DNA sequence: CTCTTTTTTTCGAATCATTCCATAATACAC
DNA sequence: GTGTATTATGGAATGATTCGAAAAAAAGAG
């Protein structure tokens, strides 16, 4: 049984081909928008409906399998959240990269918690850079 | 000359009453949505149009005076960006608080820059907490 | 202050994204 | 296989955002 089938079952979701396609596309780490997903998935499965993409993304988001990434380009991007990470966005070419947690980020979270007396549930962090290796400027 | 008039002039924007009202409302640090702004501003100025709110927010965003805050509640919130800060969001009551940069965050930014060999332009960070002093749970 | 130019505001219409709805199809447990 | 609950589909409905044209107002010059 594929990993995605197993993942869906543990979250009480039926392992439909459409859902698995969405996850497979997200796995490519392109951080696609709904429109990108719809275009990509229709190539394999022409009957795939836009409503299905919306609905599945919403469902996967509710279950914590998928997260939104807002890079302020007017469209929402989506990402599989298989492990805690943050994002790096190139302002020039728009490429989004995952960045794993490191000691310094964990230290910041601790500093927040001790200083403010709170328990942080999640850090959504987007670091913007002016250019990156993909647009080599 | 009021601070906002001066600020707008330095960004080559005309200091219209509508624009100043938007800034004054944002200054309250309610982190309002477009809808909130429209409702609040119409009370003072009933002829204020929704299109004007949208347009002014877009203009102020382009000039870097205002930033978007996406707390994943389906609506975009807006904030004056007069100095670098990040946000704390209570998942329970939805209140958004500003948090100034501290040493640990500066250290994280430095660690990103040295480790990845990049120059970070801006950090958009939203720390989610389960409950806060405003909803006292 | 008045004139001129440019920007901004306003309102309604148009557009675009997202959600809803009813029906058909499918996954999965037994 | 059969039955039941869930999901997919397409089109219509909704709701948010943008557009466009005309009127209003700001800034600057004289």
Entry keywords:
DNA-binding; two-stranded antiparallel sheet; Arc Repressor Mutant, subunit A; 2 domains; alpha+beta; Dna Ligase, domain 1; 5 helices; homodimer; 42% helix; 3-stranded mixed sheet; 137 residues
Task: Report on this structure.
- 2 copies of one chain form a homodimer.
- With 137 residues, chain A is of the alpha+beta class.
- Chain A has 2 domains: 1-82, Arc Repressor Mutant, subunit A; 83-137, 2-Layer Sandwich (Dna Ligase, domain 1), CATH 3.30.1490.190.
- Chain A contains 5 helices and 5 strands, in the order ααααββββαβ.
- Chain A has a 3-stranded mixed β-sheet with strand order 4-3-5, covered by helices on one side. In chain A, strands 1-2 form a two-stranded antiparallel ribbon.
- In chain A, α3 crosses α4 (50-62).
- The model of chain A has no long low-confidence stretch (mean pLDDT 94).
- The interface between A and B is medium-sized, with 32 and 32 residues.
- β5 of chain A pairs antiparallel with β5 of chain B, so a sheet runs across the interface.
- The structure holds a DNA duplex (30 and 30 nucleotides).
Q: How would you classify the quaternary structure?
A: homodimer
| Helix percentage range of chain A | 40-55%
Q: In percent terms, what proportion of residues of chain A is strand?
A: 15-25%
CATH architecture of the largest domain in chain A: Orthogonal Bundle
CATH level 3 topology of the largest domain in chain A: Arc Repressor Mutant, subunit A
């Amino acid at each position: 049984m594929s990993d995605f089938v197993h993942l869906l079952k543990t979250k009480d979701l039926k392992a439909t081909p459409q859902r698995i396609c969405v996850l497979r596309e997200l796995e490519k780490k392109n951080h696609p928008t709904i429109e990108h997903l719809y275009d990509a998935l229709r190539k394999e499965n022409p009957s795939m409906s836009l409503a299905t993409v919306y609905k599945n993304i919403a469902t996967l988001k509710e279950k914590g399998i998928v997260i939104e990434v807002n890079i302020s380009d007017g469209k929402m991007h989506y990402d599989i959240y298989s492990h805690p990470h943050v994002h790096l966005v190139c302002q020039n070419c728009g490429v989004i990269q995952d960045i794993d947690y490191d000691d310094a980020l964990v230290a910041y979270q601790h500093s927040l918690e001790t200083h403010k007396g709170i328990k942080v549930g999640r850090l959504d962090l987007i670091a913007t850079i002016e250019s990156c290796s993909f647009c080599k400027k």
